[in-house]
């Protein structure tokens, strides 16, 4: 019983809300869908599981991507296994380096799912994908309900300066 409690206390949970990005007049006909992904740290391993639905074409590949900052396209870091077509799952388990673990804690890792009809990309990054930043689990406001108090942004969540 004590061992299970210690394992639970050591696990850090992260969640990503996957959505289409970027969406413009050119891409809105070929990108769509939603999904969720969760990530758990067990020791030095990152375990990712997720699902997606509503893609207008079959999923082809998925990755964990390292970004310089939240909201900024980054470089593919780890490949995720994809099962399904226009709906399905993504998963993977990886040993993280110290710098990768720090990037995860800072909100700089995101999940990206590409699909068959997704356009190749903009000069500044990919388009036609589902993206979602892996953020530490935190309280979330319901849609249409203003969030009270501090907003959650990992790189700004510093208790002392």
Relative helix content:
10-25%
Instruction: Flag low-confidence runs.
Output: 1-11
> Cα distance, first to last residue?
38 Å
**Could you give a short account of the major beta sheet?**
8 strands, antiparallel, barrel
Architecture per CATH nomenclature, i.e. the level-2 architecture: Sandwich
CATH topology, by name, is: Immunoglobulin-like
| DSSP helical segment count | 2
Order of helices and strands: HEEEEEEHEEE
Overall shape: globular
Tally of structural domains:
1
CATH C-level name? Mainly Beta
- Average per-residue pLDDT, rounded, comes to 81
The proportion of strand residues reads 35-45%
Tally of strands: 9
Structural class: mainly beta
- Calculate Rg over CA atoms: 16 Å
Say which CATH homologous superfamily is assigned: Superoxide dismutase, copper/zinc binding domain
Sequence of strands across the biggest β-sheet: 1-2-3-6-5-4-7-8
